[in-house]
Amino acid sequence: MTISNNQRRKMKSAARFFAVQALFQMEQTGQTAERIIREFEDHRFGEIIDDVEMAEGDVDTFRRMIDRAVDLQASIDQMTDRALVVKWPIARIDPTWRALFRAAGAELLDKDTPPKVVISEFVAVAEAFSHDGKEPKFVNAVLDHMAREAQPEAF
Predict the structure, then answer these.
(1) How far is 59 from 63, CA to CA, in rounded Å?
(2) Going along the chain, which residue ranges are E strands?
């Protein structure tokens, strides 16, 4: 089966969304990356909830993002701290945004995807988790700072 470029982009977008959920779940439950990856691949990708089929995520993108976020968590958290206001270190922000910044930071440090694409994709993920519509602007500002630090040559 051949996958179109459009379908591949959608699968990568879904992988980003699932990575944020997986990193959140890891932090909340203390489960290992291996266990979370297996759970998401076996039960979340393509899952049907209330007659709505979830997207299939790109497995390689998902695995790489989770593995890198775990392996580089200290560096990503420090980069995120530098992007946040001094009064709001990463430990004080909502765990959803912490998971998002870790997933995005992993992709930014991977340097395979242009930083503007990473920012755009994760702002879209933020919109899915947003309660009052202000969070995506906050996410955009933090990710812009992180991207400029991780890939200054791209700006």
Answers:
(1) 6
(2) 48-49, 52-53
* Contacts of residue 55, Cβ cutoff 8 Å, sequence gap at least 6: 10, 11, 13, 14, 17, 45, 46
How many other C-beta atoms can be found within 10 angstroms of the C-beta atom of residue 3? 11
| Euclidean distance between CA atoms 109 and 56, whole angstroms | 24
What is the pLDDT, as a whole number, of residue 82?
92
d(CA 7, CA 86): 41
Give 67-118 pLDDT, tens digit per residue.
999 999 999 999 999 998 766 777 788 999 999 999 999 999 999 999 999 9
Question: How many CB atoms are closer than 10 A to CB 120?
Answer: 13
For residue 2, give Cα distances in angstroms to 7, 8, 10, 13, 61: 10, 10, 14, 18, 18
pTM above 0.85, yes or no: yes
